[in-house]
Structures are given as C-alpha cells and as structure tokens.
Amino acid sequence: MTTHPPETAYPALRVGELHQRLGSAIREAGIGEAWVQGTVSGFRPGARFNSWELVEYEADATTVAAVLQAGAFPREMAAITQALRAAGVEFADGLEVGFFGRIETVASFGRLRLLARHVDPRVAVGATVLRRQALLAELEATGEARVQQLLAPPVAIRRLGLLSAATAAGRADVLSVLARSPVPIAVVEASAAMSGPAAPPAVAQALAHLQAERVDAIIIARGGGARSDLAAWDSSIVAHAIAHCRVPVLTALGHATDRTVADQVAHGAYETPSAAAAAVVAGVEALAHQAELADARLQLAPQADQVQQDQLARSRRRAAWAIAVAVVAVVLLLAVLLL
Known about the structure:
339 residues; alpha/beta; five-stranded parallel sheet; 8 helices; 24% strand
C-alpha cells in the first residue's frame, strides 16, 4: 500500500532545525543528562577531544544491538581516567562501564552523542572481550592460530582471490594496485557482508568458494570504519574458516590500530587493502626479477663456455710451443757437446 506524506502546515524543516527540535525533545524527556552503560569500543585519544563508542551487544556477545557515540574533552577525560585508575583499571576497549554526561545531537556530524563528564568506577570486563580471549585461547590450544603461518609465502601468484563488499572502497584500492603489476594477475572475486550478524557465515562461504576456484592466495579487504562494525571478525566462524583455508589469507580490516581475531589467525595482516595488494605485487615482481636473472645466465652460458674453450686452446698452443723450443735447445746442446 502506498502512503503519501501529509500536507505541511509550515515549510519543511531544515537539517539544523531538526537537530534543534531533537535536542529540545531530549531535554523535555528528562534525559538531557543521563547515566549510560555499555562496552567501550574504538577508543581514540586526542589532544583536543577523546572519542569512543558505547556498544550494547546481543547475548552472543558478537552481534551489535545498539551503538552510541561518546566522547570527552581533555579535562573531563583526565578525571575519568583517574577515577578508573583508582579502581585498578585503565580506560580501554572492552570495559563494561557507565558514563554520566550530556546527551546531545551534533548537527555538523549528524549524530547523537554522549558528552561524558563522570564515570562509574565499578567496571567489568565486557562479555565480548572475555569471549574474544576464550576464542584466542581455543585457537592456540588447537594449533589453528598458527596453521596459516605454516603455508608457503604467497609469491608465485597467478590467480588471486578478493573477498570484499561489492561497493567497498577497499575493493577498488586493491584492483588499482594490482593493475600496476608487471606480471598479469587474474582476480577472482567473491562478495560478502563485511559487518553485522550476516557477515560470519557469508565470509566463510565466500572463502570456500574462492578455494574451489583454485586461487593462490586471498585478500580480505574491508577498510576503515567504526570498531563496533568489526565484531564479525572476532567471531569463531570467521576465525575457523580462515584457519582451515588451504591458501594464504591476507587481511586488511579496519584502521591501523585495530587488531581482530581474524588478523591474528591469517597468514598476514595489513593496515589497508592497498598495502595487502602491494605486498602481493612485490612478491610477483621479485619472482619475475629472479626469472629474468636466471634467463640472462642461461643466455650467457654458451658465450662463457666458448671463452673458456678459447683460453684452453691458447694455453695448449703455448705449452706445445714451449715444449718444441725446449726440444730444439736440447738437440743443439747435444750437438755442441759431441763436436
């Protein structure tokens, strides 16, 4: 059924006006200032402002249920850090903690934010961190954490698997770098969700598909984004799928400071999709250079053999001449003695 918007009794709201009304509604609802509890994720300190996300997870401790942007100015951040240290913990990703502050809309960034001023020092390690630690311990115990490292380095690549979202900027970056390879590299692509609850099984299926295509290595390119969007890459489904992959897997997930379980299980982890692709190209270039040197040596080998043969012939002629001279000298000496 098609619905039609009601006729407006006043001109349409501008974006800034909408933010003002939302801010007024928040204050009128009595939550202009509030305590908000969640798991700290994606903490990024700064000289002028510190930012992070407060995340609420589902019961599986992997699926993100809700996210709220949060932050604090240096003075308030110092007080928050001091309060946490007094409780024996450092401010870091994974803390399950409550903050008190102003709930506001940030019109210039188009988001709702908690501007934190105080922290409840009664904190706990979030369930997502405990689950991540348990998964890493399991992978170490079974040896799956090191399986990819036992594979040969991905240098002789002729077919490369690329796992990404169809519209991801990281995908375009990888293809751009590969296009500059001196040796053509065939790219076999597989698309999968890069975040959310659908991502883990989709990634596992895409990895299986690329292996069936007999690729020599696989790049997983996701690029930057919110830390909470990387929850899928800390899942057991993705970790086991990478560990059981028969070819080297190179990951490029999140920002340079992000380190997921998938990164730790993979053959190699790179800061950006471009860096992962550049590593592949560098390996191909090195192999091509070695082949060129070997070919040059083969071409020079006949010439070197001919030079050695010429030198040996000259040495033999010199030796024969020396022997002839010596024989003549002996004959002349005997003739003189007999006279």
